[in-house]
Amino acid sequence: MAQVRQFPDPRLLEILPGGREPGRRWVVRYRGFVPLPQPDLTWLVRPERSPMGVLPFRTPANSLDDVKALVDWRLNQAA
After folding, report:
1. Domains contained in the chain, number
2. Could you say which of 13, 20, 28, 69 has the lowest number of CB atoms within 10 Å?
3. 63, 69 Cβ separation under 8 angstroms
């Protein structure tokens, strides 16, 4: 299940859901990974902690659901 946390970088407010609303900054944690939206509209997906079973990766996925599906696929490939 995804968890929502505060995100300190104000540059990313434009591409996050609810980002234009003041005081609403989000970070999603999903299955041990943190997908971080990038200014070029890609996602950087990093493991929360080491040792890493799956290395960090970038994805041009359009939505957070696409990123979650890619994380699931990569975890299944690593198993």
Report:
1. 1
2. 20
3. no
**Other residues' Cβ atoms within 10 Å of the Cβ of residue 54:** 16
Number of residues that make up the chain? 79
| Total-model pTM | 0.61
Question: Which domain, by its residues, includes 61?
Answer: 3-78
Place of tokens 């591409």: 15
Q: What is the pLDDT of residues 18-61, one digit of tens each?
A: 555 555 556 788 998 999 888 888 899 998 887 777 788 898 87
DSSP 60-74: --SSHHHHHHHHHHH
